Sequence to fold (106 residues):
Amino acid sequence: MELNSIFSNIAQVGEEEQFNLLAKSPNCRVERIVSAGYSSPKGFWYDQENDEFIMLVQGEATLEFEDKMVDMKAGDYMVIHKNTRHRIEKSSMEPACIWLCVFDIE
Fold:
């Protein structure tokens, strides 16, 4: 057993997001995603095959869904059901956004 921190080993984030696998089992995957000033490219949509629990641990962000915008701040969380098209409209630069994401693997 090893103790870790969601705030450790964060690389300088530029235009791309940083993805780190924190844990994995046959039924789920846990990732930390760091984004600083990141926005999904225009016309790009995430359309995932699995349900995803997301929690914004640090920062502020706006997610765009096909029918609405959702503003998030540190501590906010939601479940994005599989095949729900979404994108990151914007994410804060300072502090960088730290996301905790748990994917349900079928």
Summary: The two ends are 26 Å apart (CA to CA).
